[in-house]
Structures are given as C-alpha cells and as structure tokens.
C-alpha cells in the first residue's frame, strides 16, 4: 500500500494551530506518511509542529461555515487544534489523519522508515542480552542456568528464547511445567537478591482447573529455589475470589497440599480495561477547566488512578519485604503473568536493587521484565486516554508502572540516577516512537518482524552522552540500601509532570530544576578547583623540598 | 508550679498512631512550660518536648490492659498517644495538663517567664527590628495623596487599630471620625499597601453600618478620597470578602455592605470566603482525615473533599489574586472588608501584597507583612489561637490558612521566596507557643497594656538568627520575579502533608532535597574559602585551571558523599487490608539524626508485624509460620 493513497490533500495553506500556552500560529500544513507537519512562514523554525501520526489517539472535527476545525488528542495527553479553511480540505485531512494514525500493519509503522540522524555508537538491540544478564548472575551464584528450551518459541510463545531457571531442573521438566501453566509461562527467575541469596520468580497461573490437576515438576521447579527448611511466598495478584473463579476456566492457584512449603498471599491488583477507564477519567478530570475544587477532588477520587498506584506499590513492597526482611523466596503471578505480575516484579527490584535505580540498570529492567518478559505493548499501548474503542486489551499497565517509579523517585529524590524526564520519555515512546523497541507484543513477534535489523533501538539513541545529560538526576548519590516507600495516601501524589504537562505552564518549576542543577554543578566545579589547587600546591612543595635537598 | 502534682512518671508508653510496632517505653516529665517524654527503650536518648501552650486538647481514653491511655492533640498538629501504667498517675497528669494548657491570666503565658539570657538592650533592639514606617517609606508614603496620621493616638477612633494609621490626605479629621461612626467597631478604611508604580492602593476596613438604607456622608467622602488618591483610575473596587448571603443577613443587624448608588464610581464585589466557624469545622474535618488510621486512597480523597479545606484555601487565594490583578492590571484601588475586617481582610490584603511585591517574599518582608496586616491591625491572635482559656467558638485557623496560601505559592514558584517551608512552620509554631510577645493579646492596645515590649521578647530577631536553616537555596533574589500570577485551577492546590501530617515522618519523602541543597550551600561557602586560601598560598597562578578538573570528579564524588542526607527508612506494613499501616511513620523525629550506617539498627526498631497478621483476604498455607519469625524481630 502506498501512503499517497491515503493522503487526498497533502497540504493546506493558512492553517492555524492552537496549542496550550503558545500563541496561535498560522502556517502550511503538510501530511506525510508518518507525520503531520505545520510550518509557519516565519524565518525561524521554532513554530513548527512535527507530530507522529501514531501519537494521535483520537480526532474530532467541527465546522463553522466553511472553516473546519480538527481537534487532535494525542497519546502523550496533549490536545491541539487546527483551523483549516475549506470544508473539503478539512474533511480530507481529517480522514487521512484518521487512516494514518490507525494503520493495521506493524511494518507500515514509522520505525521501519526512520533513518537516524545520529551515529550509532552502541547498538541498543544488543545492549541487554539475556546472556549478559546471566553472566552477572553467575558471578554470585551457580544455582541457576540459562535454558534455551524456548529457542523456537515453541514452549512459550510469549517468552524469550533464553530464560533463567534452577540448575537442577532440566528442559524436559520445563516443557512439562509449561503445559501446566497458562500460556506456557513456567516459573522463571526474575530477580536474585545478592544480600541473602533469596529470589523472585514469576510465572502465570497454574492450570489446576476444578478437579485440582497437579504437576509434580511444577512444585519441583519452584521448590528448587528454596533453602532446606525454608518457606517461600506466592504472591497472587488476584483476590482469592477471582483466583477461585479462574478454576472454572481451567486456571487456578497453588493448593496448599501440593505446595506445603509455600504460603500464598492474595494481593489484588486491577487489570485490563478497568485501568484504561481509570486513565480516561483521570485525564478528563485534569483537562477540566472548572474552578470547582470539590468537583476536581471528587473526579480525582472517582478516577481511582491513585488507588491503583497505591495498590501496585503496596504489592511490590510486600514482595520486597518477603525477600529482604523475611529472607524468603517469592513467586509472583496473576492470570497470564504478563501485566500486574510484571508491575510487581519490576517495582520490587527498584526497591531492592540499587542497580535498577541507575539509568543503565533501569533500561535493563525494562528490557528484562517488560520487553523480553512478554508484556504485550502493542495491544496495551494501542490507545491512550482519549481512546474511544475501549477494547479489553488496551490498558495503561506500563504507564502505571512508570507512575509508581515516579512516586518512589519523589520519596527518594537522591537515590535515582535518572530524573522525571527519563520516565516521561519512556512513557511517550511506549505509545508512539520512531524506534522499534516497543513494537510487537513479545520477543517472538519482534523476531519475526526482524526489528533488530530493520529498526533502530530506543537505547541506541538514549544512551548517547548528549541525550543522557537531559535524563540525569543532579541529586543522585549512589545508595546501596533497600528503599521502602510510604504508601500512605498522603505520600502519593498526582504525577503532574505527565498529567498536568499540557494544562499548566511549568516555567517556574523548570526554572527551579535548572537552579538546583546549577547549585550542584557549581559545587562540583568548586570542589574540583580546590582539589586541583591542592595538588598544585603539593607539587610545588615537593619541588621545593627536592630543590632544598639537592 | 502548683498545677503540677506529679512532675515525673515512669513506665510511660508512647504509641505510634500508624503502626502496631512495640511502643516506646520511657519517662514522662512535667515542667512549668513543657511536657517532656524521654524514651528509655531507644539506644540513643530520644526526647519529645511538647509545649503546654501547644496542647489543644487532652483526652483520657478507656482503660486498656497495658494502662491508662492519654491522647494529646497539639495546635501544631502533633498527636501524642501516651499510655500511663497507673490510673492515678494518669489522672494527675491529665488534670495538670488541662490546667497548664489553658492558662486563665495573660501573665501565665510563657512569654512572661521566657528568659533567653540576653542583655536588656538587645531585647529592646529586638522589638525595633520591624519598623512599619520604613515600609511605608518604601511605598513612598507620606506623599501627595497619603499621610501617616496619629488620629488614633488615644484609640479614640478605633480601639483595635494602632495609634498611627495611613489615610488619604484629603480625608480630614471630621471625615475620619464620621466614617468611624459608620464602620463596625470604628475600623475605618486605612491603607494596607500602595502599589507605587501606578498609585493604586489596597485599603481595608470593617463593614459599614448601612443596614437597609443608612448612609454616611463622611464615609462616602472617605471612599472618594481613596479613589481620588489614585488619579489614574476613574473607579475603585469595594470588595466584600464574605459570601453575599452572610453580608445580606448582616443588614438586618444594622450592618451590611456598601450600596453602589451611594458612593461615587465604586465597583462593588462579593468574594465569598466563609466565616471563622466554617473554617474551624473544616480544619476539624481535615485533621480527622489526617488522623485516620490506614485510610484507603478513596477515604483520604473523599475526606479531603468533604472537609472543604482546599476549597477555602482556594477562595482565599482567588481573592488575593483578584486584588493583585485589580491593582496591577486595572490600575484600580481596592477597599477590602469582611465583617470586622480582621480575619478574611487580613488574609486577603496580606496575600495580595505578597503577590504584588517581592519584598514581602524575603525574610524581613514576611515579618513586616505579618506585623503590618495581622499584629498591628488587630487580628485577634489570642482568641483565634486560644491562648487563654476562653470561648472555643472564637478559635479559628485564619492565620494557618494564610500560612498555607504562602506555602501553596512556594510550590508554584519555588525560586521566588527567600525562605523555605520550615520558616513558615516555625512562625506558625510561635503564633501558638506564646513564647514571644508578638502574638499575645488581640490588638495593639492590649499588647501595650500587657507591657509586652517591656516584659517579653520579640520573635523576629530569633528567627533571623536561624536564617541559614530557613533559607531557600533556590531563591533567585529580589528582582527576578515581580508580581506572581499563580494558577488557581483546583489541581494547583496540594494537600500540605508537611503541616497537617508534619509529625508523621514516615509519610514524608525519605530524602530531603531541601537538606541536600542547604548542605550544598554551606559546602559552597567552605569550598570558596578553601579555594581563596589555596590561591593565596600559591606563589603564582598565571595559567587558568588545568583541564584535569574533569578527571577529578571521583574525588568530588567522594567528598560529596559525606554530605549525604541521612535517610530514615523502614518498610511499613504493606500487607494488611486496608493496607497502609505505617511502620515508618513510627519513628519520632529524633531518629533522623542517626547516620546512614545505623540503618540496620534502626530497622530493628520497626516491628515487622508484616506477614503474620493475616486476614480474610489472604489464604495461609502454613499456620505455624510464626515460629519462623526472622531474628530481626
């Protein structure tokens, strides 16, 4: 298919762009296969708008006489308005945008066409290979092995080819366990806590069904992670009720008789479209320009977004506590093990592992616990807060994870190498990007799409020193401790950097950030100067001493 | 003190509201001024000091197996939950505290016994630190239109105004006296702030005694004089900060509001800030929400909404913004009043000044502002703060709301204030502490009668001494921001955890950016001295610094390390349903002086009640798991 077929009116003159906090701009609107571009006739290019079609969540059109107006609502929550003279032009442009922003085929997406303007120093597609992660693990323990049982994606279509499993469990056993777990997602290693050798594993629900089907390899697998005489915890992200109901559909949970060494804790975390509806309501509340305080607070409350944040954080803290404080291993799963499970395992790692609070470590975490772990990004991030489709699979699971990270960052502002902008950047790219990283639903799909050959990795771009500079937290001081966030409602806040980003000017907050940066930078320079002077002085003194001696 | 029958009680437990961890065990002391609790169970001596004047209420709760509980709520929003072993001791402490916390006579207030051991003249100089005349001079007063008059020198115009007030030059004695008769309690229109750049003024007064039809020529002349003192504008605003309904109800009592027809060129406007009683009950509801044990997010937000607290804060802020805008953008003078003109009017006028004039965003400036609009103009601190045993219906968090508005502005404009949040909290503490004379009494005349200038100390010099810890490292100086135009959409107002949950440390960020930056500032001074010293020692320094500067970053990091903010951090009870049971709220503030290395020990304080209190939502596989309790219990 040619994009040209979809673009009936490739350009329109005298279009007026309205954006929050900017004066209206008049210019020429151009549609390309992947972008909507507005360029003003001004000499400077500052007034230009480049918008990826894939960033468009929904559009509305309105007409007053022959003047058409298109309101574009983006996945990054921004809303812009274009006034287009001429009814036909406006209709054409609207229908083109609609078609281009909802392309069916992944291979028509921008990452397949994007040619980077920067030199790739480090190819991000190879930055976080499972083999390298395994090497790190091997330096502290030899109880685990890297299994290629899923090499052809035949055992578990949503797992990567290489997974880390207990050494004592062979591939044959893994195959059997896979048949006992939803979607073949047998328990694999998620995190190894160096401090005490405890581990966190994740999987999907066991397929016990109503008649209590069992699988001895399954219990053998998870028991292999326990120390003699020690007990482990299973954190089920569903309520007991939901877990019991799942049995009727062939799913289920670990019964005590079959898993006597495990204690199961049900920590219910919401999923699917409930989260999407929550996002839609929250964004609607944030966009409300009413001056009514009660209305705002009641909408904020009714959106339940912060309730979800609190519940996810609480579950993650609980997992962390089992590992670090109780000295126990943990298995986390819900139904499919691709959503709430990953929120919990990844947040627990941020709490427990200082490495995950570095930029590199966080990237590795996203790669390991989200991309390779098979979080279906394409389905979940197909639409954002302005979605009309309300499909069950659309869900801001990853977005909520980032919000939770932001909450921890706010409570421990000196413990993270990255700043808020880094998290916002990841949010944006998860929904619309020139890079291939978040395309597809799992490794198998990414492999088939040959993303690593045909598209650029987000990490290749982010990890350039000049890009990284924007994402570095000036307050960062490596902190090797476990960080326990407070989950009291008073401690959790609306993530303004994302939700109010387009609704209020951030000028004064940006200035404060800048000022803070300056203070810290200046101190560093000063310290360096003092050190240099000291050294000079010392050198002079030794020179003097030598001269006296000679 | 005759009130203290039992000065010392042993084996007293201090419970933490947020956890089920083992309570601290220690000794309670009652002194003439403070309740002191010394925690004997901690490795490091921990003391909790509570000023008697800070105690808002003492409540005896039903006897429990561990003893007799006593709940102490403080005006600075601390809540102390003590358990005393013997009923008799508890009762004695209870009755002592009741008396100690509710002094009957002003002479019993702390300020009259507080003795910081300083020479007499520095005490006197202290009282002269804030000179309002200097502030009027700063506004260019006296000038062609405004004068400072001693018309009230024997309080004959108004007994709640100071002897000297600023009025339009055009208003003669007859006008002043006439207007006074027409204004509630004689609180005539006087100048609050003059915006020098365009001569627009903010003036304040009380409601007119207009009833349904009364008018007063002198009052009309007074307003005309104010309007004409700003020749650039053809009209002036008269702002009634009350809800219209309240103002109308006042007419029946012979009070009310200005009839636009009777005054030349006034634009009359209601703003709708609620009265002191609504505010008092709103705060009450807010504090109930803050005190709720492990609320869900929904409980909290619903409670916050139902309290109406942020709605009221927004109303005050909106009024301030309206005034500032009228003055700055419409170049119009504004006359503000409520009923008596000492609560809402004080809030709104001081807030508008703060928005318009960067001076009021400095240490000295905020002091001047509080002195000018609150203390001198007769905000009844004594009644509103309940300094003495008296009518509880007079108590209202009017000044707290002003403090919060300043804080809300600091959130939106982090670089615009010379001081930080702690400065606000310190002032707020002392408004209630009665340790200094500034806030005693309810007007200038009373303070004179109490001889506070002779017998007590002024707070302001003490605050300036602690300037280093109260400064805002991000402050960009006087000239960078002129007037502030805050966003007043509801989402711009945040719940102020640092005020209303101030003593629940576990809820606050575990690393404090402010401390970090303050450290940077003090380090900066040391480094600059170091650098100068070294440069002087070096015989010659022709060439600029070598490039090795960058390569030295490791050393830099090492030295920065030492400035690390101590982190207070233990997990809370994440498991119980509803979940948030704060173990980390547990640790009293004294703990955070402990360095990081003590993290391990510190964690031992916290009781990991954790995974063992199971409840219905969770299925236990092993019931004997308790035996497995890890050793760190």
What would the average pLDDT of chain B be, to the nearest integer?
A: 86
Supply Rg of chain B: 28 Å
Instruction: Please state the structural category of chain A.
Output: alpha+beta
**If helices are DSSP runs of H or I spanning 4 or more residues, what is the number of helices of chain A?**
20
- Major sheet strand order of chain A: 4-3-2-1-7-6-5
Uncertain segments of chain A of ≥5 residues (pLDDT<50)? none
How do the strands of the widest beta sheet of chain B line up side by side?
4-3-2-1-7-6-5
Q: Biggest interface: chains and residue counts? A: A-B, 96 and 101 residues
Shape by Cα distribution of chain B: globular
GO molecular function, one term (chain A): enzyme regulator activity
Organism (chain A): Gopherus evgoodei (Goodes thornscrub tortoise)
Main location (chain A): membrane
Subcellular location (chain A): Cell projection, Ruffle membrane; Cytoplasm, Perinuclear region; Endoplasmic reticulum
Secondary structure elements and pairings:
The complex is a heterodimer of chains A (550) and B (633).
Chain A: H1 3-6, E1 11-19, E2 22-31, E3 35-40, E4 49-52, E5 56-64, E6 67-74, E7 79-85, H2 87-100, H3 130-138, E8 144-147, E9 163-166, H4 171-180, E10 188-193, E11 198-202, H5 216-223, E12 232-236, H6 240-246, E13 262-266, H7 272-287, H8 293-303, H9 305-324, E14 330-333, H10 340-352, H11 359-372, H12 377-380, H13 397-411, H14 420-431, H15 443-448, H16 451-454, H17 458-462, H18 465-471, H19 496-499, H20 507-549
Helix pairs in contact in A: 4-5, 7-8, 9-10, 9-13, 10-11, 10-13, 13-14
Chain B: E1 8-15, E2 24-30, E3 34-39, E4 46-51, E5 55-60, E6 68-74, E7 79-84, H1 87-101, H2 120-128, H3 132-138, E8 146-149, E9 165-168, H4 173-182, E10 190-195, E11 200-205, H5 217-228, E12 236-240, H6 244-251, E13 266-270, H7 276-291, H8 297-307, H9 309-328, E14 333-337, H10 344-356, H11 363-375, H12 381-384, H13 398-412, H14 421-433, H15 444-449, H16 452-455, H17 459-465, H18 467-470, H19 497-500, H20 513-537, H21 548-551, H22 553-561, H23 599-605
Parallel strand pairs in B: 11-14, 12-13, 12-14
Antiparallel strand pairs in B: 1-2, 1-7, 2-3, 3-4, 5-6, 6-7, 8-9, 10-11
Helix pairs in contact in B: 4-5, 7-8, 9-10, 9-13, 10-11, 10-13, 13-14
